[in-house]
């Protein structure tokens, strides 16, 4: 099973972590590392390194980060070059995280990354767009086609 490490600015990581636990319950090899205001990059790097060693049971680890280019992303990326089977995904949201937690037993790190990006593309929508889909679906069926 792939390990999962959430990281991001402020309480981003623990906020998502708590939401996952509320919805799915506690998960093995799953942790959150915040980067609060005032924390040094050196401290964050050490915490991420410790989490990586704790979460990796041989199949690899996926870092889920908040924003591309931020310190949590950059330090996770640096670690991905130092360890095998480590992937870094940026722009994390709850729908992607939930779906991928369900798939981490059956995918390797690279396949996991590719699947997560596919899911991310469809996880952002709006009420208007969803209502339009329903209207289109109803019209197709009402015409008997």
TrEMBL record:
Boundaries of every PTS EIIA type-4 domain copy: 1-124
Name under which the protein is recorded: PTS N-acetylgalactosamine transporter subunit IIA
GO MF, one annotated term: kinase activity
One Gene Ontology cellular component annotation held by this UniProt entry: cytoplasm
One GO biological process term: phosphoenolpyruvate-dependent sugar phosphotransferase system
Cross-referenced Gene3D superfamilies: Phosphotransferase system, mannose-type IIA component
Protein keywords: Cytoplasm, Kinase, Phosphotransferase system, Sugar transport, Transferase, Transport
């Amino acid at each position: 099973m792939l390990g999962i490490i959430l990281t991001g600015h402020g309480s981003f990581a623990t906020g998502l972590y708590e939401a996952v636990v509320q919805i799915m319950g506690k998960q093995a090899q799953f942790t959150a590392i915040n980067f609060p205001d005032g924390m040094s990059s050196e401290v964050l790097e050490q915490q991420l390194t410790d989490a990586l060693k704790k979460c990796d049971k041989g199949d690899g680890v996926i870092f889920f980060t908040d924003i591309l280019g931020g310190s949590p992303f950059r330090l996770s990326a640096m670690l991905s070059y130092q360890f095998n089977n480590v992937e870094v995904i940026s722009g994390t949201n709850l729908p992607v995280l939930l779906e991928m937690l369900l798939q981490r037993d059956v995918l390797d790190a690279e396949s996991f990354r590719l699947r997560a990006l596919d899911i991310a593309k469809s996880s952002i929508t709006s009420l208007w767009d969803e209502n339009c889909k329903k209207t289109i679906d109803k019209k197709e069926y009402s015409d008997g086609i």
